[in-house]
Structures are given as C-alpha cells and as structure tokens.
Design brief:
The chain is of the alpha+beta class and 562 residues long. It has 17 helices and 17 strands. The chain starts with a helix and ends with a helix. Helices cover 35% and strands 22% of the residues. Strands 6, 7, 8, 10, 11 and 12 form a 6-stranded antiparallel beta sheet that branches. The chain has a 5-stranded parallel beta sheet with strand order 3-2-1-4-5, sandwiched between helices.
Length: 562
C-alpha cells in the first residue's frame, strides 16, 4: 500500500515537473519498489533506500543537483500523502508532520559515500602520492598474499572480468591479469589513475585495463556490465579506519554477478584485553610534560593537566605488541563481505565478553584482523595478528585513562562502538568495559588520529645500484620485545591458517603436473614459464636457475605458481 501510494505521487509529480526521462524512470522504479520497504526499519529507512536506488540508477547525464532537487520535492509530497501515511500508521509510532528531508537525503548519500566533499578531496589527494603506495607495496606479506591468492586460484580468474576497487597503483588488477583475467576495471578516485595507465602500458596490459577515475558510489554508466570478481584492498588500521569496506559492499551490490567472487571475501576482526603498565605510565608522564608547570614564564599552566591526560588517552595506539600482554582469549567476529550491507558498517557496535586469565589490570583492548581469500582451489589468509609477521597495518590499542582491575576468572563485558566522524573518512570509537559492578567508559578515539610514537621498525639496506642504496623497513625482522609475564592467550585463528596453508599446498601439487605437461613453448622462441617473451640465452628461467628438468620445474619447486 505504501509503495502504491508513493508510486501515484511520483507519477503525478514527475509529469508536473517535466523531469528528464532518465530521472523519471529512476524515481518511479525506486519509489514504487515494494521490496525496498521494510516495516521493521520504518518509513525513514525505506525512503533512504528509495533515494539511494534513485541516485545509483540515474545515468551520468543527470546532474547530482537536479537529482537532489527532484528528491526533495518527491519526499515532501510522499510524506504528506494521506494513503501513504495511513499505510505506515499501523507499523510504527505516528509520523512527524514535516518530512525529515535532511535526515533522509544525508542517509542516502552517506550510504553511497563516506565523508563530505572536502574530506574526500583530502583523502584522495593523500592517496595520490607514490611514497605512500611504496610503503604498502613493499609490505611483502600484504602484496605477496594478494598475488598468491589469485595465482593459486587461477581457474577462477581465467577469461573473467574483474573490478579492482580502490585500485591505487593498479597492482591488484595487474595480478588478476597475470592470473588470466580477460579485463580489469580499475576504480580509483585519486590522481593515481595516471600511474595505473603508465604501468599498464609499460607492462603490456593497456588493452585489458579500463580506468574509471571516480568515487565508486558516483559511477553510473561508466561500468556498463556486471563483473565476475571484485578484488579490493580497502582495509584500514583496526580493519575499519578508512571506511573503505562500505565502498566494497556497494560495489558488490551494484556490479558483481550473482555467484561472483570477492578477493578477499571476509575478514575476522579480533579484540582482546591487554595489560601494559609501561606504556600506561609513559603516557601519564607525557601528559604531565609542560602542562603541570605552575610558573611557565609567569603563567600557571597546571589547569590544563587533566585536558592533556584526556587528549593523550583519546589517541589510539598504533604499534606492535607481544601477545604475552593479552589477558583473555580474543573475541573473533567475522565480517562477511559477500552478505553484509553497507549500512551494517556505518554506525555499529562490536560487543564482547572476556574471562580474565590472570589477576591483573586491564588497560584497554587491542585489535587486529585477518582477511580471508576463498577460491575454488584453496584459501589464503592475510594476517595482521601479533603472532604473525608485522605488516604496515601494525596493531591498534584503545587505552583507558582509568584502568579496570580484575581477578582471575572474572568476566568482563563491554563493547567497542563505531560512529562515523562528521566530515571525515573515519570513525570515532567508544570503549566500554564493566566487571564486578565497576564500569569504565571512554569516547572520542579518532581512528585517523593515532599515536605511532612507539613504532620502532627494523631497517634493511636496499641496494638500488652499485653506488646507490636506501634504508627500508624490514617488516619480517621487526619483532616485539616480550614482557616479563607468561603468555596466557593462544592465537585464536591458528587453525584457520593451518588449514589454509594445507589447501595451498594441495593447489600447488595439483597445478604443477599440469604446467609441466604444458611447458612446451606455444611457438618457437617463446618462454615456457610465461607463454610470452623470448627464451633466455642459457638454460633456466632468466632470473631463476632451478634444479631438475628445466626452468619450469625449478621455478615451481622454489616458488609455486607465483
């Protein structure tokens, strides 16, 4: 009944306003779609969905301003329509007299993108620097895991159309093409599109790459087809810091074929309480610096001491820690990108219940994540946990200004809440912990304003030429110092990683014989490892002289399919 009433209003208003055909079709389809109406969520939420679908389905010929003007008129008319209001009267409290236009349109636009125009401009300008991409690409755990996941599941990619969301340098799209994809759409809103184009041409991918220089949520007919696979690396510190997951979910809803794949398909978000008196006391000390002075050039600054303390502890710690500081088994919450909706990661909460394994002080909660790639042949895990090789994501800790004392065996309940930070591309977090009638609650953890002062990465020398060298972070050699206490908590996902490693071994074993039988060149002078390019002048693969019957067997024995 609500859909029918809204459809009548749309038909009448569209005719009166002489709307462009594309916009008229979009609003009629969206506001008349009964599947977008959810009695449980209410009238406002249902109108948000209708507005969102209208915006997404309009062609690029219709400007955003014209869409918004049209939606404002339609929303006001629908909200005032008596039959529409009557249809909703039975399912919720009486509707307000005036339509909450700002709330509905903001909800629709927020569902499509994150942050305002200025925030997006700043965000994408930051990601337009080669130096930032160098840090990510030289994180071997991150980059090689993505390549391995695609190469070991080559049959999923061969001849397929791929979308790389948040393409950056284009490296994931190139990996997909290496794995046999026929075409890759590179969705990138930053100036890095010029880099993608240059690398694609330099590596022979130019005719198989389609670059779309837009925020994904603004794409209309620039991507005219559904894709078979979406690859993405929009994962932030603490998993959610950059709010990139919303974009991936929107891409899946709009562009992925039924039964299509996401690489990665899901992420396991882990939280555990920690005790770290050294860092806690160090932060208290830093907060006193200057702001306890009672005679600073004749000025008493001590009234700002408490403000300094709050400011210090509102900044999340982004560093590396040894797992022996954890004091209870970790909570593991899976976020499945194949089934979630974008609205599930807008304002949300992760509740927890811990049972302390020691009589100690909880200084807060630590968080990390593991991304899961699930292909037809094997699974691959990208881990940022404190038990595994350090990555550029580090680990994150939310530290309480007032710690919580607990006894061994005592239960501690609480949650970490995520609220979008206004005008930004990140979240404010709220931590609540309670035990034995004592509650600690702290708000204002800005996930983009982190304290990285405790990061001490190991360095290695990279020889660029005979006379040039640079120092680089050695992620594998960077190890946390153990505390003096016994390790109490095991890796909660060790079995997942063991099973994934076994499936990769099986995939390598099944693929190697097939490649050996097809190792003969397709034509004279063609290299058998790649299928393209000249043969090396001597035996072996050029850069790899493997043992055995030829370069192919040596390459596979040493490296597998990568």
């Amino acid at each position: 009944a609500a859909a029918a009433a809204a459809l009548r209003v749309c038909a009448s208003a569209s005719a009166a306003a002489a709307l462009p055909e594309a916009l008229r079709c979009a609003v009629t389809a969206a506001f008349g779609d009964a599947e977008l109406i959810d009695a449980g969520e209410g009238a406002k939420a249902s109108l948000v969905k209708a507005c969102r679908q209208t915006i997404e389905s309009c062609s690029s010929e219709v400007g955003s301003q014209e869409i918004d003007y049209c939606l404002c008129e339609l929303l006001s008319a629908v909200w005032a329509e008596s039959e529409w209001r009557k249809a909703w009267a039975a399912s919720e409290t009486p509707l307000a007299d005036g339509c909450p236009l700002r709330e509905i349109l903001t909800g629709a636009r927020c569902s499509l993108s994150y942050g305002d125009v200025d925030a997006n401009r700043k965000y994408f300008k930051n990601f337009g620097r080669l130096s930032l991409h160098a840090t990510m690409m030289q994180d071997k755990t991150r980059t090689s895991t993505y390549q391995r996941a695609m190469q070991l599941n080559r049959q999923d990619f061969e001849g397929k159309v791929v979308m790389d969301v948040g393409s950056g340098s284009g490296i994931l799209a190139f990996f997909a093409l290496q794995a046999g994809a026929a075409k890759a759409y590179c969705i990138e809103a930053s100036p890095m599109v010029d880099v993608i184009r240059e690398l694609a041409e330099a590596n022979g991918f130019g005719d198989r790459i389609v670059i779309v220089n837009m925020v994904l949520q603004d794409i209309r007919d620039e991507v005219p087809e559904l894709v078979d696979i979406i690859v993405h690396e929009t994962l932030g510190n603490f998993l959610f810091a950059e709010r990139g997951i919303e974009t991936v979910l929107a891409a899946r809803q709009r562009f992925l074929k039924p039964g299509g794949l996401l690489f990665p398909a899901a992420a396991d978000f882990c939280l555990a309480p920690f005790e770290d008196s050294r860092i806690y006391q160090g932060r208290l000390c830093k907060a006193k610096n200057l702001w306890t002075e009672t005679n600073f050039m004749g000025i008493d600054l001590s009234s700002l001491h408490e403000r300094s303390r709050r400011e210090m502890f509102s900044r999340p710690l982004l560093d590396q820690f040894h797992p022996d500081i954890l004091r209870a088994d970790a909570l593991v919450k899976r976020f499945d990108f194949r089934t979630m909706g974008p609205e599930e990661v807008q304002t949300f909460e992760v509740p927890f219940a811990f049972r302390s394994k020691a009589t100690c002080v909880f200084h807060g909660v630590a968080g990390w994540f593991e991304a899961l790639f699930e292909g037809s042949l094997c699974s691959v895990v990208l881990s940022t946990s404190p038990w595994d090789t350090l990555t550029h994501w580090w680990q994150m800790r939310l530290m309480l200004l007032e710690p919580l004392a607990v006894n061994r065996g005592q239960e501690v309940t609480g949650s970490v809440g995520f609220v979008p930070l206004s005008g930004s591309n990140t979240y404010n977090c709220k931590l609540a912990m309670e035990s034995g009638g004592v509650r600690r609650e702290q708000d204002g953890y800005n996930l983009a304003d982190v304290d990285s002062s405790n990061q001490v990465p190991a360095q290695r020398v990279h020889q660029i030429s005979s006379v040039e060298k640079v120092q680089m972070i050695d992620w594998e050699a960077t190890k946390p110092a153990p505390s003096a206490t016994e390790a109490l908590v095991p890796d909660p996902l060790s079995e997942n990683k063991r099973q994934a490693a076994q499936s990769q071994d099986a995939a390598r074993s099944s693929a190697a014989p097939a490649l050996r039988t097809s190792a003969r060149p397709a034509a004279a002078g063609v290299h058998p490892c790649s299928g393209t390019g000249p043969l090396p002048t001597a035996g072996g693969c050029g850069f790899l002289r493997g043992p055995g019957t030829g370069c192919l067997s040596g390459h596979w024995a040493a490296h597998g399919p990568s």
